[in-house]
Amino acid sequence: MATLKRTIGFWISIVLALILFVVVQVLISGEILNSFYVNTLFFMVINIILAVSLHLIIGITGQFSIGHAGFFAVGAYASAIMTMKLQMPFALALLVGGVAAAVAGLLIGIPSLRLKGDYLAIATLGFGEIVRISLLNIEYVGGASGMTVTHLTTWPWVFACLLITIIVIANFTNSTHGRACISIREDEIAADSMGINTTYYKVVAFVIGSFFAGIAGGLYAHHFYIIQPTNFGFLKSFDILIFVVLGGLGSMSGAVIAAILLTIVSTFLQDYPETRMIIYSIILILVMLYRPKGLLGTKEVTSFFKLRRAVQGGIGNDNKNTVA
Amino acid sequence: MTTRTPLLKAEHVGIQFGGLKALSDVNMELNKGELVGLIGPNGAGKTTFFNLLTGVYEPTEGSIVLDNEKLNGLPPYKITRKGISRTFQNIRLFGELSVLDNVKVAYHSLARHSILSSIFRLPSHFSGEKEIEEKAVEFLKIFKLEHVMDEKAKNLPYGQQRRLEIARALAAHPKLLLLDEPAAGMNPQETKELMSLIAFIREKFDLTILLIEHDMSLVMGICERIYVLDHGQLIAHGTPEEVRNNPKVIEAYLGEEVS
Ligand SMILES: Nc1ncnc2c1ncn2[C@@H]1O[C@H](COP(=O)(O)OP(=O)(O)O)[C@@H](O)[C@H]1O
Ligand SMILES: [Mg+2]
C-alpha cells in the first residue's frame, strides 16, 4: 500500500517535471521569456542545486560546511578549463567539474571529519578563502580579471542536472545509507554505538554534496560568459547556507523553496547589494522569531499530501558532548 | 547451571583524564549467559568503564578482550560489530527519526546493498531495504512497540524511550549487552516491568548482560554476581549476599549518603 502510494507519487513528480521542462522550453524557444527572465531562471536552478547539495551535508548529516562556494568555484574553473583550454565537450566538462569538486571535498573531508566537533566549519571556511585567493593569483585562469567562457548552458542541461541532483540526493537519503547519515546528525555517539561507520558516512555525504556543487559551478561558468574569483567569495557561501537554514534544516523541499524565493529577492535587489544584505538579515530574524525550524521545519512538501512517511528531521542537540 | 565459558576479560584496565585517574586496575571477567551487576556511588566510574568497553575512550592502561579478540584501540563501530552494544544513562535515541527507523539504524551493518544500488534504485536496494524493514518490525513486536513505530522517538513517553533504547541495542545483535542505569527515572511499577523485561531478553537472545545500577537493592534481586566500584577502583566482587555484607561496600554507600 505504502509502496503503491510512493510509486504513484514518484510518477506524478516525473510527469510534473516533464511538463515544467516542456513549458519552459517552449517559452524560451518562442522568445516569450526575455533574457532577463531566462537568466534569473537559470540562476535560480543553479542555486537550487547548490542548496540541495549543501542540504545533504548540513540538513541530513549535520556537518556544518560553510565554504560551499569553494566547491562551486572548483567546478566552475575546472569545467571552464576543460572547454576553453582543452576544447573538450561540455558534457565531459561538467562531469570533470563535479569530479574535481568531489576530490577537493575528499581532501578537505577526510582529515576534518575524522574528528568530532566543528572542525569542518573551520576547514571549509578556510578552504573557500584559499580557493578564491589562489584563483586571484593564477594567471592561467585569468587572475582577478577572470576567465571568459563560451555560453553553452542551455535549458535542457540545466534541467537535467537539477533533476539528477534531486533524484540522487533523495534516493540516497531515503535508504539505509541516508538513515545512517541522519543518525549521525541526531547523535553521533549513539550512531557509533549502533555500528555505523560515522567517519565514512560523513565523508560520503560531504563528497556527494561537493560533487553537485561542482556541477552547479560548471553550469554557472558556461552561462555568464565570464567567471571571476569574486563570484565565489564568502558571501556566496553564506547565500547557500541561508537557503538551507531558511528552508528548515533537514527538509530538501524547504531548501528548494528557500532557494527559489531568495533568488527572486536578490535578483530584484541586484543593484543594491547593501540593501540585499539588510533584507536577508531581516528575513532571517523574522524566520528565527516565527519559524525557528525554518520554513518547512523538518517536513517535506510531499508529507503535506501524505504521500510518504516523513523520515527526516532537524538538528538534535541535548547531551552531545559528554558520554553518559 | 551456567557453563563457565569466558566471554569478556578486562585486565588491569584504567584511564586517566588529564590529572584525574577516573579508573584504575579494574579486572573483570564475564562468562557467557551471565547477568552481572556493576554498582557504586555516583562518580565511581561505572559509565566510564562502559565507555572503555565500547571504545568511546581508549584505556590508558590494561587490556580488554572479547571472545579472545583484543578490543583496545578499535573504533566504537567495530566494537559494536564484534558484539558489544549498549544503552546510555541519559537516553540517546535518534529523536527526529521514527521508532521504526531507530531500530533500522541498528540493522544498517547487516545491509548488503551499496550506496550506488540505492542511488540507482537497483533491485538489491529494494530487497535490502525490505529485509531491514521486516526485521525491524518483527523486533518492535517483541518489545510491544509496534503500535508506535511511526512516532518520532522523541515524542514517546519516558518508559517507552528506555524500552526502545534497549530494543535498538539488541537489534545490533550483541553477545554482550551493557545497560547503563536503565531504571533511572522510572517509577516502581515501571522498574518492575523493566526487570522482568531484562530477564526475558536474556533468555530469549541467549545474552550476557552487564547492568549498571546505582540503587543497590535493585540489582540484588536479579544478578548472579556483582562488582562494586568506588573512586575508580573495584572494592568488592561476589554474590549479592557477599557484597551486601562487605564492610567496604557499606562504607562506600554510607559515605555517599552523608555527603
Ligand atoms: N571525558 C571525561 N573527562 C574528564 N573526566 C571525566 C570524563 N568522563 C568521566 N569523567 C570523570 O570520571 C569520574 C567517573 O564518572 P562516571 O563514570 O560518569 O561515574 P558513574 O557513572 O559511576 O556515576 C567522574 O569524576 C567524572 O567527572
Ligand atoms: Mg554513570
From TrEMBL, chain A:
CDD domains documented for this protein: TM_PBP1_LivM_like
Keyword Transmembrane listed: yes
TM annotation in the entry: 7-30, 36-58, 65-84, 90-110, 117-135, 155-173, 200-220, 240-265
Coiled coil: none
Membrane topology: Multi-pass membrane protein
GO MF, one example: branched-chain amino acid transmembrane transporter activity
GO CC terms: plasma membrane
Keywords: Cell membrane, Membrane, Transmembrane, Transmembrane helix
UniProt-listed InterPro entries: ABC_transp_permease, LivM-like
Compartments in which it is found: Cell membrane
Pfam families, per the entry: BPD_transp_2
Protein name from the UniProt record: Branched-chain amino acid ABC transporter permease protein LivM
Organism: Parageobacillus caldoxylosilyticus NBRC 107762
Gene symbol of the encoding locus: livM
TrEMBL record, chain B:
Biological source species: Saccharococcus caldoxylosilyticus
SMART domains: AAA
Gene Ontology CC terms, in alphabetical order: plasma membrane
Keywords, alphabetical: ATP-binding, Nucleotide-binding, Transport
Gene Ontology biological-process annotations: D-alanine transmembrane transport; L-alanine transport; L-isoleucine import across plasma membrane; L-valine import across plasma membrane
Native organism taxonomy: Bacteria, Bacillati, Bacillota, Bacilli, Bacillales
CDD domains: ABC_Mj1267_LivG_branched
SUPFAM superfamilies to which the protein is assigned, alphabetical: P-loop containing nucleoside triphosphate hydrolases
A GO molecular-function descriptor: L-isoleucine transmembrane transporter activity
Gene3D superfamilies named among the record's database cross-references: P-loop containing nucleotide triphosphate hydrolases
Record has ATP-binding as a keyword: yes
Protein name, as recorded: ABC transporter domain-containing protein
Domain ABC transporter: 8-256
InterPro entries in the cross-refs: AAA+_ATPase, ABC_AA/LPS_Transport, ABC_transporter-like_ATP-bd, BCA_ABC_TP_C, P-loop_NTPase
PROSITE patterns assigned: ABC_TRANSPORTER_2 (PS50893)
